[in-house]
Amino acid sequence: MSDLQSVRGTRDFYPDEMRLRGWLFSHFRAAAQLHGFEEYDAPMLEHETLYTRKAGEEITNQLYTFEDKSGRRVALRPEMTPSLARMVLSRAGALPLPIKWFSIPQCWRYERMQRGRGREHYQWNVDIWGSEGVEADVELLAVLCTFFGRVGLTPTEVGLRFSSRKVLQEVLDSVGISGEQFAAVCIVIDKLGKLPLAEATAQFEELGLGTEAVVTIQHALGLHDLDALAEALGDDSVAVAELRALRTLAEGYGISEWLEFDGSIVRGLAYYTGPVFEAHARSGQLRAICGGGRYDRLLSSFGGKDLPATGFGFGDMVILELLKDCGQIPELDGSVQDVVFALKPELRPAAMEVASRQRAQGQSVDLVLEEKRLKWVLKHANRCGAERLLLLAPEEWERGFVKVRDLATGVESEIAPDAL
User: Fold this and answer.
1) DSSP state, residue 5
2) What is the pLDDT of residues 24-75, one digit of tens each?
3) Does residue 186 sit in helix, strand or coil?
């Protein structure tokens, strides 16, 4: 017998799970569309080189790659941003700016599994291209807050931690770190909350950082107050000015209570250039819900002309874990409105006629196709979450009526087919 389990790290979606996924995706779409974003998509299969252009990034070790029948090296997409960059570059100069796009692609990464993390997941991506001001970054934060509110979460349950890669740049500049060493240090810094301090310090030392540099980095990234950051970097700090502007604009949106400055938020990928942010459960029980930031220099890594850009990625797995913890998973019935059943086999053509009439009017109808007992049909209708049971019984049909049972109240009535 073949293995009946799905591949480790992947998921089957039975109808009840599909209803939940559809509900979640509907809120992803609504939050983005309320802010004027348009949906796009791209192939799940891309050229491997789209992701391996920069050796050393963690993602290159997590790819699902293979050689196709034409000898080309291809990969299942691990994230959407490279595909988006490819699409923007392929129509360089022809797309009206700013671009405000979103997508909900399935992504694949071979990584260690844990609660809220598999090897395939769906990721809500929201991006703005062609807008260089911090206003675009705040717009993304507003999209996130809109989504959280729509699914029943509040600032007491979710916090948006923000910082800027310019903070890190200024700190690392002060201790003489730049170039390729900068990117490697960013990866270690992004793991600070996940690694024991001794192990993180050892990794810093392997990259050539002395004790004094490590202490300076850890102090700056441990700050949670913008005034304290200004004291550490100086009042003329570009990073501090940018973050204060972000805070002021967030007040205009009315989302300040969701936000908190956290110097340790740096994001691991080297292409981030400005504000960065992550959403976390206040309980601290889960990994980051989502993360993103500004990446103004991405296109040049593909050989194109850079374009200001900012965006975030939001996986479907952690948010569902949080919603379960907060008791916010909705009870979702199936989409069936009417169940149609013929009590006698000779009435099945008439039952099909009634079902077709209802479907033509936009009703979702399940037609019982087999000979069943009425008790089974009633249980089936309740399992479907149907509103009504339409019974074709010989006597009533002879008089030109369908017997209709309201499944919520149990009340029965006789209604002509054209009045259903």
Assistant:
1) S
2) 999 999 999 999 999 999 999 999 999 987 544 567 789 999 999 999 999 9
3) helix
Q: What is the CATH number that goes with domain 15-325?
A: 3.30.930.10
pLDDT in tens, 47-59: 999 998 754 456 7
DSSP state of 7: P
Structure tokens at 284: 């601290």
Closest CA to 88 of 123, 136, 130, 131: 130
CATH number of 338-419: 3.40.50.800
CB-based contact 121:351 (threshold 8 Å)? no
Alpha-carbon torsion, ordered 214, 218, 219, 220, to 10 deg: 100
pLDDT tens digits, one per residue of 368-396:
999 999 999 999 999 999 999 999 999 99
**Nearest residue to 267 (alpha-carbon basis) of 226, 313, 202, 201:** 313
Two structure tokens written together for 178: 């730049």
Q: 352: exposed, middle or buried (C-beta count within 10 Å: 0-12, 13-18, 19+)?
A: middle
Q: Are strands 402-406 and 388-392 parallel, antiparallel or unpaired?
A: antiparallel
d(CA 84, CA 137): 18
Where in the chain are the domains? 15-325, 338-419
Whether the pTM exceeds 0.70: the reply is yes
Backbone φ and ψ of 83, nearest 5°:
-65, -40
